Amino acid sequence: MRNSAGIFTCRPFIFLGMVTLLLSLFLPMTALAHEKDEILLVNKENSLSADYVPDNLVYPNVSFSSDRESMQQHSANALEEMFAAASNDGVQLYAASGYRSYDYQADLYQYWVNRYGEERANQISAKPGESEHQTGLVMDVTSASVNYELVQSFGDTTEGQWVENNAANYGFIVRYPEGKQHITGYQYEPWHLRYVGADHAAEIAANNLTLEEYLSQDSSDGTRTYTIQAGDTFWKIANDHGTTVDQLLALNPDFDPLTLQIGDQILLPGDGSTNPDQPNEGTSYTVKAGDTFWGIASNYSDVTVQELMDANPDISPRYLSIGTTLTIPTSSDNQNGEQYVVATGNVWIHSTPDFTVDSRNGVLYNGERVELLGETTNMYQIPDGYVSKNYAEIVE
Ligand SMILES: [Zn+2]
């Protein structure tokens, strides 16, 4: 009798225990994946409209390095908690810059353009609508040890280290980590904290991800999204991500690979591999199916298409054949005269329809360096949504 009673009392607990275990294994992942939809992604590809203004902006009750700035209510509360915890640890943080309106960002961007030109301005300032500060979910923080400035050396200070190690506990991430500029579009900014909530922040911090990577990770159907970049083709994407063109076509039946547009989002098989292995520099490379000069150069951190062409003068980038051996240059020490580093979307429109310069037909590649000659300074910016093929094409 005692035994059977024991069984009856035990069983529900065992059952509940298993359910709880299963739920704890399953729910956080699926719930998190689901809630990712609610995370606002703002970057150079995803901009906010001019009239996006959060309706719950408040001034967090923390120390500021100069004038007070606002944030959305819930992120302000989290910031207050974080600052209090830092203070308890003997770390004094100062808030510096929070919500910025579209118009403010427009003025700020114009200031940098006037001062350094558009090319440099794009590296250090967001264009209006592309600043995460417009979300009201961001606070730049600093410390006395760096003179209350927003500088990379903040990351090495006691305060910067505290932020790095503890921000996620309060729902914040260091939005532009070191070494991830090719993903975020921004240099390392140890001071720029973005609120995403504690669950997401913990996942992001534990896996050393950027917000872009986190939001494109596996969804419940085993796929993840990928945003088309300049120079992408299905071939290149398949090569870079260890899949095949056939698989990409099957996963993306609505996409015509010949008219891929920058910013389009396609599905990749969710195998978790995001980056191609970086081959060694100063060696040779054997051309594979689907390779382009642009694609090959982009696999090396410090090799531009121009340098690749210079190192392989006998090989036409337009007629790369499989099995060709390319020399990969080691360094860029051939910088004569004034040069301009081509940005995504720049196309060289020759002043006369005379493409005798070389075999490139006036095409400029992302990252390529060109000499600024009088007749070739006419740069053309590809509008958003321009078709991205193996290379940026002349549009007129
Ligand atoms: Zn910032």
TrEMBL record:
Signal peptide: none annotated. Pfam families: LysM, VanY. One of its GO terms (biological process) is proteolysis. One of its GO terms (molecular function) is peptidase activity. SUPFAM superfamilies: Hedgehog/DD-peptidase, LysM domain. Residues 224-268, 283-328 form the LysM domain. It comes from the Bacteria. This is LysM domain-containing protein. It comes from Planococcus halotolerans.
